[in-house]
Structures are given as C-alpha cells and as structure tokens.
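haha ok so turns out i had the wrong file open the whole time. this is the CORRECT one, sorry everyone. sequence first:
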Amino acid sequence: MTNSLIIVARSNFPLGQLALAAEVTGEEYEFGLGWRMFVTESDIPGSLPEIAKAAFKETKYPAVVGFANSDPGYLGIVFCEKGKTDLTFVTGVDEAKADGFVAPKFKHHPMSAIGSAASWSKKAVLNSSYDALKAAANRSGGPGAPGMDLLLTWLVGLGIPGCADVDPYWNEIGDAAIAQRQAFWRPGVEVEINL
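then structure:
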C-alpha cells in the first residue's frame, strides 16, 4: 500500500522548499503558469486543512492538499484559499471508510465538492470544467483507481495548466487509459501497451 501526501499550488519556488516539507523528500511536478505539485510518501505533521493553510501562508496562492492511497484506491482532498479551507472531500468513499481514513458515518456530497472546487478554481484564476469536476466528485475508488489517478481527474476539472489533454472519464482498467495516465505522471518513460 502506498500513501502519498500531495500539495498543489501556484508558487515562485519548488513546493518541496516549503517549511512544512523541510524534513521530507518527494517528487516535484511543474504544470505551467507557476503551478506546481509536490508529492511525498513521508508524513507531514498536521491535518489536510492545516497543511493547506500552511501552504497558502507560504505561497500566498490558493492551494489544494490531498491524501492519496493506491490500494484500495481513494483520495481525500481539501481546497484552501485566503487561508480558509472547505471540508475534506473524498473520492472512493467506501474504500476510505474501510481503510479508516474517514468515519463509517462519513457522508460524501458530490454537489458540495463540485461547488467548492469550482469556487476555488475561480479564485485561483483558473477555468474549471463542470463536467470534469462532476467526473472527479462521482468517481469510485478501489482496485484499478489509484489515488494519484483520482487526483488527476480533479486537476483536469480545476483547470490546472497542462492537464487538459487527460480524459476525465478514463476507464480505470483499460490499457489505453492506463497508458495515458502513466504518460502524464512519467512523461520521460515510454509505455508499451499490447492491444
């Protein structure tokens, strides 16, 4: 099982240089127009909302913080702007409950998640896609839907630069969809698919 903490924000410097990430290592991604993402498998102290607020405080830009689990496959995500966070939204709720990430009585509200994401995107001066946000908010988790791939659907919906070519309705198990997602996360790695 792989757990990843993800920070997405616009920043003039690599997000791995944030004070909250000083003690951990991770991978840095650049999307364009100053948008970056830092992914670590190490623990960063604090809840997702606390980490999002800290990222906003240092970058001075809206931030998204997520917790991705690759097996059984779920994603918790928080949107932060002006130092305020929304609720934690979860994609793959059943898997997150089974893993203890959220309480058994946790309720997922897709329309609330879509509204929060669209509002965040507007305040971040991005162009969100309602259809892609709907796909992200309603996607199920589980085998074949790793948390990082669930995050990718949110990034498409939020309008993060460089993500527009990814189909938010990817089939979790199809070879072509897997190749598309692998090409996004590892652009320098050639992926062979036998169809």
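Residues 189-195 have pLDDT under 50 and may be disordered.
again sry for the mixup
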